[in-house]
Amino acid sequence: MPSVPPQPALLHEVPIDLGERSYSIAIGTGLLGHADTWRGLPRAAAALVVSNDTVAPLYLAALRRALQPHYGVVHEVVLPDGEAHKDWPTLNRIFDALLAKGCDRKTVLFALGGGVVGDMTGFAAACYMRGVPFVQVPTTLLAQVDSSVGGKTAINHPLGKNMVGAFHQPVRVVCDLDTLATLPAREFSAGLAEIIKYGPIADMAFLDWIEAQLPALLRRDPAALARAVQRSCEIKAWVVGQDEREAGLRAILNFGHTFGHAIEAGLGYGEWLHGEAVGCGMVMAAELSRRLGLVDAALVDRLTRLIAAAGLPVDAPDLGEQRYLELMRVDKKAEAGDLRFVVIESPGRAGVRAAPEALVREVIAQCCKPAHR
Amino acid sequence: MPSVPPQPALLHEVPIDLGERSYSIAIGTGLLGHADTWRGLPRAAAALVVSNDTVAPLYLAALRRALQPHYGVVHEVVLPDGEAHKDWPTLNRIFDALLAKGCDRKTVLFALGGGVVGDMTGFAAACYMRGVPFVQVPTTLLAQVDSSVGGKTAINHPLGKNMVGAFHQPVRVVCDLDTLATLPAREFSAGLAEIIKYGPIADMAFLDWIEAQLPALLRRDPAALARAVQRSCEIKAWVVGQDEREAGLRAILNFGHTFGHAIEAGLGYGEWLHGEAVGCGMVMAAELSRRLGLVDAALVDRLTRLIAAAGLPVDAPDLGEQRYLELMRVDKKAEAGDLRFVVIESPGRAGVRAAPEALVREVIAQCCKPAHR
Question: Which of A34, B67, B111, B296 yields a CA-CA distance of 20 to 30 A from A81?
Answer without folding.
Answer: A34
